[in-house]
Design brief:
single chain; alpha+beta; 2 helices; 51% helix
Length: 71
């Protein structure tokens, strides 16, 4: 399987995951304070929404790459 077909397959899978889940969340450290023996940290949970058009576009582009790549 050539690299273009692999990229197309990856785009189809990522597009399907984007449509299936719709969003993903991650945690980031925003503040760390050290005052002598006392340590404080703040973690924020961020959510990123994946637009439907982006998932559909990734699947269409991936399909074109996968089925359009000929030897």
């Amino acid at each position: 399987m050539n690299p273009i077909r692999l990229a197309g397959l990856a785009l189809v899978v990522l597009g399907a995951l984007g449509l299936g889940y719709g969003s993903f969340a991650y945690t980031k450290d925003t503040h760390d304070v050290k005052l002598g023996p006392l340590e404080l940290s703040v973690k924020e949970k961020e959510t990123v929404n994946v637009p439907v058009w982006a998932g559909v576009a990734a699947m269409v582009l991936g399909g074109l790459l996968f089925f359009g790549a000929r030897k």
